[in-house]
Write a structure and sequence with these properties.
Layout: E1 7-14, E2 20-26, E3 40-47, H1 59-66, H2 73-79, H3 82-102
Antiparallel strand pairs: 1-2, 1-3
This protein binds zinc ion.
Length: about 110
């Protein structure tokens, strides 16, 4: 992650064509028009406040949790015999497809 770059939400307009758009860029960034590749100019810039990590998870708690090494899918998959993994995958697939058909194409 970029630590100290000042990020801004910048509105840019092409100097040649009608293009205008917003994007996030650092202070001294520059860009060409995505339509005609002419230079663009900034018409507006709003500084963004950096949010380094999601709130709620303590660094210390996370570090403590990691002390035993990363667990999860990978460790589990290595411990299980192939036959059991296959069984689990089949159950999951069945559950997925039965859910989908019940909701009549719903899902997402
Ligand atoms: Zn243009």
């Amino acid at each position: 992650m970029i630590a100290d770059a000042r990020r801004q939400l910048v509105t840019r307009r092409c100097r040649v064509c009608e293009w205008q758009g917003e994007r996030i860029e650092t202070t001294d960034a520059d860009m060409d028009c995505p339509w005609c590749h002419a230079p663009t100019r900034r018409v507006n810039a709003i500084a963004l406040v950096e949010r380094r990590r999601p709130v709620g998870v303590s660094v210390h708690a996370a570090a403590l949790g990691r002390r035993g090494g990363l667990k999860g899918g990978r460790a589990r998959a290595a411990a299980l015999p192939a036959q059991r993994r296959r069984q689990i995958a089949q159950i999951a697939a069945r559950a997925r497809w039965s859910r989908r058909s019940k909701r009549d194409g719903g899902g997402r």
